[in-house]
Amino acid sequence: MTVQFAKGAFALARPRAVMTMPRADVSDPKAMLAQIQAAFEEFKKANDENLKGKADVVVAEKVDRINASIDAMEKNFQKAVDDLNAKVAAANGVVGDLPEDPEYLNAFKAHMRRGDVSAAMQKGTDADGGYIAPIEWDRTLTGKLKRISPIRSNARVISISTAGFKKMYTDRAFGSGWVGETASRPQTSTPAFAPLDFTPGELYAMPAATQQMLDDAAVDLEVWITDEVDTEFARQEGIAFVGGDGVNKPFGILTYVTGAANAAKHPWGAIGVKNSGAAATVTYDGLIDMVYDLPGELAGNAKFYMNRLSIASFRKLKDAGGNYLWQPSLVEGQPSTLLGTAIVEVPDMPTVAAGNIAALYGDMDATYIVVDRIGTRVLRDPYSSKPYVLFYVTKRVGGGVYNPEPMRALKISA
User: Fold this and answer.
1) Nearest to 198, CA basis, from 172, 235, 159
2) What is the CATH number of domain 93-168+190-307+346-414?
3) How far apart, in Å, are the Cα atoms of 100 and each of 113, 140, 226, 263?
4) pLDDT digits (tens, 9 = 90+) for 361-375
5) Domain edges within the chain
6) Residues in domain Phage capsid-like C-terminal (predicted)?
7) How far apart are CA 197 and CA 321, in angstroms?
8) Which residues lie across from 125 on neighbouring strands?
9) pTM of the prediction?
10) pLDDT in tens, 147-175
């Protein structure tokens, strides 16, 4: 099997140097990594020529085309790795970390197709008539959400069985002092406490299918529902985790940045901001300022979080010795790095433009918390829209900054 590049923008965008390279076999990760490395070498040559002032419009366009090519090849590589992992899991007959339950799965299919309720289905019955999805369906949905929503897969995720989650914080304001042997010892200050609520909002979807479609034994019901719901849930989650206003949805991490709407919400203050060093672009000095503003004891698990267009801007940066700060991955399953630190692509992050927060740097697991109200629920409705059967799917998710200290933001500003 060979890597097939899609027709359209990417196919037109590949530079001549990349187009002449042999296509890597998706079953051979080493060959795909070699192709990415070769494309990056070509990128460095073209970008160096551009920086030396020898470039014209053709060379500038070539740099942009190679940049886009590297992005696409990295995406293909990651997809190939994910597909191979999925095939391994399928071959083992296991979904997530639990074996399939054929009896429950067959009962769930019967309920979804015809509305039948059997004794086996009582495992997932709610008092209001809704049905918790079976383990196989619920775990598949969650797995795809983790791949599509990088904030979820990098943040701290907890599951709750109540209406909300509350966390208590202290300002650590214990007082102390040095005294002599017989000196008086006045009372010292006592820390204050403050609560912070993380209340889940509700995501819903209501895809439909005709009864004839559901009666057709060739239809894979779980795949159909998953395809309809998981991408939309992941898209909505991704938007909310980055910029959500907290109204029936999570509070986005960018709303806690200094100067943003929720800068004063957390008892420990806002996420710190460093300027990029230029009014409308990124600079090496600004990047260094942001990285080293994070205390060393909090930087052990730090990563960069930015969107694809921003990655293209950071990819062109060099240090004082002329070395590129961005480096492609040379290890299977590992991301590319910036200053030796992993980069996580977050589609909903702002682009590099004046006044935007173009990048985050820090430990997302220690900074942001995702709160899942246990269970994805499915309610079958064959009555409201005949001849269609509606499947009302809900999931309750909350989120917010757990601790602002392990994160820094880069603002495009002089």
Assistant:
1) 159
2) 3.30.2400.10
3) 20, 12, 17, 46
4) 999 999 999 999 877
5) 9-90, 93-168+190-307+346-414
6) 129-411
7) 48
8) 131
9) 0.71
10) 577 899 999 999 988 888 888 887 767 78
